[in-house]
Specification:
By secondary structure, the chain is α/β, with parallel strands linked by helices. It has a 6-stranded mixed beta sheet with strand order 3-2-1-4-5-6, covered by helices on one side. It is built from 4 helices and 6 strands; from the N terminus they run E-H-E-H-H-E-H-E-E-E.
Length: about 150
């Protein structure tokens, strides 16, 4: 911010870009795979924009690796961010399918216009590279973005 660069936030990617987030012109059926922070955020934002959203989580709990990160002493406040995202999803009408694996058969049955894959993050431990993959399927194609970052201790 002080260097003339846009501000950013790990938990709120729209920070500094609030005016760009608008309601959708056309309501679509969106499936989000993964109930961690990325999946919860994608689900709540898609629902807020007016889409019909189903979030599929293979475990019985939401929060992904963020839940694990909250266990050490002094880190409990991390769970507030997850609870906030869950409440936003609920208020915006996201349909949760817990203890459900996102199989090709299920996706065919749901027949979504778009699929957001937000599953499988790696917890950071020392000097490792992390990978975040986002896949959006719509229409006739599948578009996949992969971002790799090297995390270093300072």
């Amino acid at each position: 911010m002080f260097k003339g660069l846009p501000i950013t936030c790990a938990m709120n990617p729209e920070v500094g870009r609030e005016r760009e987030i608008i309601k959708a012109d056309t309501k679509k059926k969106v499936v989000v795979i993964g109930g961690g922070p990325g999946g919860l955020y994608a689900a709540q934002l898609s629902a807020w924009r007016g889409h019909d959203v189903t979030l599929i989580e293979k475990s019985g709990e939401l929060g992904g690796n963020f839940r694990i990160a909250a266990y050490p002493t002094g880190k409990g406040d991390l769970t507030c961010a997850i609870r906030s995202l869950i409440v936003k999803c609920q208020k915006n009408g996201v349909n949760f399918r817990m203890n459900t694996e996102a199989t090709p058969e299920l996706l065919k049955e749901l027949a979504p216009d778009a699929v957001v894959v937000a599953a499988g993050s790696n917890p950071l431990a020392g000097l490792i590279g992390s990978v975040m993959t986002l896949a959006i399927a719509g229409g006739s194609g599948l578009l996949i973005y992969t971002i790799k970052k090297k995390h270093t201790a300072q």
